[in-house]
Design goal:
This protein has 162 residues and is an all-alpha fold. Helix content is 59%, strand content 0%. The longest helix is centred in the N-terminal third of the chain and has 15 residues.
């Protein structure tokens, strides 16, 4: 999926279901960048792995974490209710592979668990640090982060008037 399409069809609809404080250009760009970093916006099911959705959530990691975290659990349950998905780990995990709005909402909620503001366009290194803190990738690929960051901010700039 093209990053601009992911932004338009999944990220913005997901953010519309969340409190306004979770919506910003920074959130949009960061969500695109993470999806690009994790799956190149091509793989809803991890190649040779268990993760699901463009943001590559694992059942016992991100899915369980978002559903159980004190600052995101109620929001996660509300998203699940709005999308007619049982707000339990197994059904959410299964739905993430095909429900991009759900996946984008859970990705935003995972970022919400981090302290401090989201990084701005010029704070690529802070974005990398926050990505590592939230996603905890098994094999981080810092050499691809600059491109992912650029893809995220380019998608937001292209969709600024849409």
């Amino acid at each position: 999926m093209k990053p601009s399409l992911l932004l338009r069809q999944a990220i913005r609809p997901a953010l519309a279901l969340l409190p306004p404080a979770m919506t910003s250009r920074e959130a949009e760009a960061f969500l695109v960048a993470i999806a690009w970093q994790e799956s190149r916006c091509r793989h809803r099911r991890q190649v040779r792995g268990p993760a699901r959705g463009y943001w590559q959530f694992e059942r016992g990691g991100g899915v369980a974490g978002v559903l159980r975290h004190p600052s995101t659990g109620s929001h996660a349950r509300a998203i699940c209710e709005a999308l007619d998905i049982d707000a339990d780990i197994a059904p959410v995990y299964e739905a993430l592979e095909h429900q991009d709005v759900l996946a984008a909402a859970f990705a935003r909620l995972l970022l919400w668990t981090l302290p401090g503001p989201l990084p701005t366009r010029t704070q690529r290194a802070s974005g990398w640090a926050q990505y590592l803190a939230a996603w905890r990738p098994g094999t981080p690929h810092e050499h691809t982060w600059s491109q992912s960051w650029l893809v995220g901010w380019t998608a937001v700039a292209e969709q600024a008037d849409v």
